[in-house]
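Data card: per-record layout.
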Amino acid sequence: MNEITIAEIIPFSLIDYPELISAVFFTPFCNWRCGYCHNKELWDYSGEGKNYKKFLYNKKGLIDAIVICGGEPTIHVWLPELIEEIKSFGYKIKLDTNGTNPELLKNMSDKIDFVAMDVKTVKNKYSEVAEVDVNMKMIAESISVIRQFYKGSHVFRHTDTGLSFNQLVEMQNFVGEPILLQKKNL
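The structure for this 186-residue chain is written out next.
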């Protein structure tokens, strides 16, 4: 899909962008198939999309930021255009990602204000959790880009999938800094 498509909008959130009032834009589709995903309906999205431009206009001055998540936003060639459009309204931008597009993270570092990267598991189990072949060089590069270009404006997080304490330590060592542990939806 080459046209900007926002599958769903949460119009108001106090928890998705640290210390800011935000709205959340969900992009369709994902390059992974994690079994515990809470947005599986976006994997094969076939809807028309929401009128995000009208939303951006109507919410100006009422919210501070837009969180872009999915699915996986960075798989879309139109993401830089969407980011530029959001910025033109004066909103801050937080991007939630699985870390498969380090080039976009680097190239858009002057436009994206905050990044949250999901760290799925220990290195040797990524493909098993994502249920696709995962290029771990891209994941490691994304971690490096985020740590270099988004100092003080990022978080690495992990949805609790039952890893052992030693595996959590191994995962944290891979990232090189603390990871926010979140409970998965029941």
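Known properties of this structure: The chain has one domain: 8-182. The mean pLDDT is 93.

See the next section for split statistics.
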